[in-house]
Design goal:
By secondary structure, the protein is an alpha+beta fold. It has helices at 3-8, 17-24, 120-126, 166-177, 197-205, 232-240, and strands spanning 29-41, 44-64, 67-78, 89-99, 102-113, 133-144, 147-158, 212-217, 220-230, 250-259, 266-273, 283-289, 292-298. A 13-stranded antiparallel beta sheet has the order 7-6-5-4-3-2-1-13-12-11-10-9-8, with helices on both faces. The radius of gyration is 19 Å and the shape is globular.
Length: 300
């Protein structure tokens, strides 16, 4: 597979025929989520609201020219009617080519609403906005052996993009990225460059003894730590909801990430089926801002 072919796997309006076929096929594993939110003051929840948004996670695999192609994607969005008028949308897709259990090359593409609010007061001012346009951030990158390149750009678009219009947003992002300069990474390595985030995470989830690993995003090097432990209470809960099969156990994943140079730690928690070949989480719990905690739970 050439560099040009792997670049076309980034998605959107420039999807290659291979990717279109993969998207037409049934995903290997997929989940849809409901998003609940908690507003925090000094790490204590003062307000809870359910159904403020939703999301999805998809895992696809197929064979291409003797190699294993893997595509991982995650989408998250707010529901303005339930989120006090706040309209946020984010999407990330990673595609890789593997030969004999080794990742040969990978690409990633993402687009999200820019969220500059750093405090609860700033976030409150962003509620019930009447703006017709919003700022979005798009990013793309490619990893091949020791070679890494990435590009990012800001662009404007309609403020009321919904998940059903994701293809339009992706096309706008691709157009904006087409003129953005590609830059080298801000780190040096003597070996192969680590995988992008979603790939590094799922590989760690499928390797119980792998407590930490590295990943690359936006040309920067990050470290990922996870710790797995059984959670019978969560298993009973998801069985009662008809999401977890009888006899299947559940693992709680306590994780954190940190940029290797000058970064702060970010904690998260996941719940997955024990022994799953494709561990797509049943619950995702993280804190994207100091004042906001989001819990995304799988729907039946």
């Amino acid at each position: 597979m050439t560099r040009r072919m792997i670049a076309k796997l980034l998605g959107g309006a420039l999807l290659s025929p291979v990717m279109r076929r993969a998207q037409a096929d049934e995903p290997s594993a997929a989940r849809r989520y409901r998003a609940d939110a908690q507003v925090l003051i000094l790490s204590l929840p003062i307000l809870r609201r359910s159904g403020v948004g939703g999301g999805s996670a998809v895992w696809r695999e197929w064979r291409e020219s003797g190699g294993l192609m893997r595509q991982l994607e995650f989408t998250g969005y707010s529901n303005p009617e339930r989120a006090a008028g706040l309209n946020r949308l984010g999407f990330i897709r990673e595609t890789s080519c593997h030969e004999e259990q080794t990742m040969r090359e990978a690409s990633y593409f993402g687009v999200m609403t820019a969220s500059p609010e750093e405090s609860a007061e700033e976030a409150h001012k962003a509620l019930h906005s009447t703006a017709t346009e919003a700022t979005y951030t798009a990013i793309e990158g490619r990893i091949e052996g020791r070679h890494v390149e990435t590009a990012s750009v800001h662009f404007t678009g309609p403020a009321r993009f919904s998940p059903s219009r994701r293809a339009e947003l992706v096309a706008r992002a691709e157009k904006a990225l087409s003129t953005a300069p590609h830059r080298p990474p801000d780190f040096h390595t003597t070996g192969a460059v680590p995988a992008p985030f979603l790939h590094a995470l799922v590989d760690a989830l499928r390797t119980p003894g792998k407590g930490q690993t590295e990943y690359v995003y936006s040309g920067r090097l990050y470290r990922l730590w996870i710790r797995q432990s059984p959670d019978s209470h969560a298993a009973d809960y998801f069985r009662q909801r008809g999401i977890l099969r009888a006899g299947v156990n559940m693992l709680r994943i306590n994780g954190k990430v940190r940029r290797e140079v000058g970064g702060k730690e970010t904690d998260f928690r996941l719940w997955i089926e024990e022994g799953a070949a494709q561990p797509v989480p049943l619950r995702i719990d993280f804190q994207p801002k100091s004042y906001l905690r989001l819990i995304m739970e799988a729907e039946a």
